[in-house]
Amino acid sequence: MELYERIVEAIRQGAYPPGSTLPSEPKLAADLGVSRPALREALILLQEDGVITVRRGVGRTVNDRPARRGFERLQPVESLLGADGSKVRPLVRIIEEPTDLVMQHLPVPASCDIWFWESVVDVDGVPSCLVEEWSVHDEALAAVDARLPGALASAEGQPNTMLHVLSDLDPYLPLSGTSSLTATVLGRRRGEVFDRSPDTPVVLITQVVSIERTPLIAAKYVLPSGAPSIPVRQSR
Q1: Where do the HTH gntR-type domain residues begin and end (predicted)?
Q2: Nearest-CA neighbor of 218 among 147, 115, 158, 135?
Q3: Do 101 and 29 share a structural domain?
Q4: Which residues face 180 on adjacent strands?
Q5: Is the domain of 191 the same as that of 89?
Q6: pLDDT digit string (tens) for 174-232?
Q7: DSSP summary character for residue 21
Q8: Domain harbouring 96, CATH code
Q9: Domain identity same for 41 and 93
Q10: What is the DSSP string of 187-222?
């Protein structure tokens, strides 16, 4: 998978432009400094995901629209839904005490104050995702990186998600995430946000974002039926 990502990144950076033919397998393996069996496995996955097309007598051609990176890559949900057409609309930006649900995911004491952000991501003007995010308390944020409390406080009124703020603060922060997916329904309150029936089916994604195994953010992403798809790559 690491080799897969290296090749995709090279395509995105223009080393192998769309429509071009990849070098021969021996040359590509030498250029990348990998074994041919490892390269062959990565090329099979690239073909399965539609990044390249293999034609007899032509070779491996880079497709015009390489597959987008999906939910297996930690990035803000507004980017996953399409950075060009998506817009974050802040609903709530408050400091509150953590709920029991939040304390299941974040190492915070019950008496502390934490940020809670609620936002809607509109895609091409249509409400497509409800985002609910909680951070650890300021002391815990500062213990990881002294810039984090100020970054969230200064971004309070900006049309961004918490993960977007952290990613923009430093693209090299060693962030990682774990996520779970559940099928449920909107419910009354969330239905009012989307102006849809409480019985509307949704996919609920619960995500915990950590830095060096220290949880920083817990988030819930509510995607009702009809929302734009988020690609999820599977591998053997």
Answers
A1: 1-65
A2: 135
A3: no
A4: 206
A5: yes
A6: 888 889 999 999 999 999 999 999 999 999 999 999 987 889 999 999 999 988 877 77
A7: B
A8: 3.40.1410.10
A9: no
A10: -HHHHHHHTS-TT-EEEEEEEEEEETTEEEEEEEEE
**DSSP secondary structure, 73-110, as one string:** S---HHHHTTTTTEEEEEEEEEEEPPPHHHHHHS---T
Residue ranges making up the domain that contains 21 = 2-62
Neighbours of 197 (CB within 10 A): 12
**Total domains in the fold of the chain:** 2
Looking at the structure, tell me whether residues 25 and 104 fall in a common domain: no
Return phi, psi of residue 158, to 5°. Answer: -85, 150
Backbone angles phi, psi at 160, to 5 degrees: -140, 160
Residue 6, Cβ neighbours under 10 Å: how many?
Answer: 13
Q: What is the pLDDT of residue 70?
A: 65
16: helix, strand or coil: coil
Helices (H) and strands (E) in the chain, counts: 9, 8
